[in-house]
Design goal:
Blueprint lengths: L1 E2 L7 H16 L5 E4 L5 H15 L2 H22 L3 H28 L4 H8 L1 H15 L5 E4 L1 H4 L15 H10 L7 E5 L2 E3 L5 E3 L5 H11 L5 E5 L20 E3 H9 L10 H6 L4 E5 L8 E4 L11 E14 L9 H11 L4 E6 L5 E7 L3 H12 L6 E14 L9 H11 L4 E6 L5 E7 L3 H11 L5
Parallel strand pairs: 1-2, 1-7, 2-4, 3-4, 7-9, 8-10
Antiparallel strand pairs: 5-6, 9-10, 11-13, 11-14, 12-13, 14-16, 15-16
Helix pairs in contact: 1-3, 1-6, 2-3, 2-4, 3-4, 3-6, 4-6, 8-9, 12-13, 14-15
Bound molecules: adenosine-5'-diphosphate, aspartic acid and magnesium ion.
Adenosine-5'-diphosphate binds next to loops.
Length: about 450
Amino acid sequence: MKFGGTSVANGEKIRHVAELLKRYHENGDELIVVTSALGGVTDGLLNTANEVSLSGKVSHVKEFIADLTKKHYDAIHVAVRSDDLRSVCIEAIDKRIDELEKALIGICYLGELTPRSIDYISSYGERLAAPIVSCSICSLGVDSASFTGGEAGIITDSNYGNAKPLEESYYRVHERLSPLLGKSISVVTGFIAQNHQEIITTLGRSGSDFSASILGAAVKADEIWLWKEVHGIMTTDPNIVQSARSIPQISYIEAMELSYFGAKVLHPRTIEPAIRHRIPVRVKNTFEPDFEGTLIVAEQKQIEDVVKAVTLISRVALINIAGAGMVGAIGTAARVFSTLASAGVNIIMISQGSSEANMTLIVNEEHLEQAVAAIRSEFCNNVVGEVSYDRNVCVVAVVGAGMNGIPGVAGKVFHALGNAGINVIMISQGSSQHNISFVVSASDSIEAVRILHGEFQLDR
Ligand code: ADP
Ligand code: ASP
Ligand code: MG
């Protein structure tokens, strides 16, 4: 069971989580728990590290540390209802906050922030949360211990910020955590792991979902549950469309497409480990535990709802590569892709018309500058005549395995957008036919999501 940042945002919520866990434990369930950082803490750590690497202000570090300490002390006071356990917990937290403060002051003086130090700093959110959740469980009379991802056995490569777990992790986790099942509730930090040199790595933002499914697959769990503050996976982001509904059941493939295409509700790699042993994944609401939520399973139920959900990816940019010299020039696409790969740029969408005179790519906005520079320098204006770009775009995707082989879905999508006067800049449909994704100007994006949600009657 994984609890997201909103589920453990403060002492009351952590206590609620501990009580929930106690109930399942007493019901005979053998549990492993993954916790995120207390809500907002990871952002705070990253912003502060960035800020002080530029300003060098030690006073800023001191202020941040004072707030962070207060936030965690407050949580301990409410969540841990035993004086002895409270002192144990405070001692653990003090030690970690002290290390963090030293690291941040180091960054002030060095004035540099490497990917490795970003991972180290951001790991403190979960490293402060796990002891509190664990002590809260203990204070309810249930045995529990906390572990970092690395201590639990998750070993990754050294791709800081987006590290990949190595195969041996599955064996290590099984060896370390399985013997404790049923006796003690292990609370593991989400998001973070370590490499072979025992240096902290992270699995990417929102990585706790991924941690939970790695642990679940390693111990061959019966189910992997992700507890959040929403009613499961919904037909679209409920912040965009209020009438969004919870989807009772969805396939692995659909859930993966949704997460790749921006549904922030799941880390994009969450489903991969679950697939190994076909472990069902449930997404549930921490604050309404009796609500079923969403069940993610291997089978694809081809139901009448051809489209299951609509998603939006903002903060992307479009790059257009054009030039008459590209027509029939074998290897141009390969050169573009390998150039971007070497520049560390991830490509989200690709489209090339059969005229071959231009190619359009969508990348994360933060990669735009390096992407454009890399392509311009690789081609030095032969073959490719012009590289232009646009930051003011978003990707919208409609997802559903049911659209595979059903004619007219694309027609319906684009007809509805046309009627609303929304201009479509680029279109892509993978041959999996599980999603149709397209690019619109950022100012049209919310409206596009609303229109399609209505068009496919997803609120019914
Ligand atoms: P966690 O607490 O596990 O970190 P997140 O905050 O990462 O949870 O994910 C839940 C958030 O995802 C919701 O607040 C919601 O705004 C957003 N979201 C985006 N798309 C969807 C969707 N299709 N279904 C549910 N939530 C979504
Ligand atoms: N705390 C991390 C983040 O904010 C990981 C997570 O919450 O899943 O990205
Ligand atoms: Mg998340």
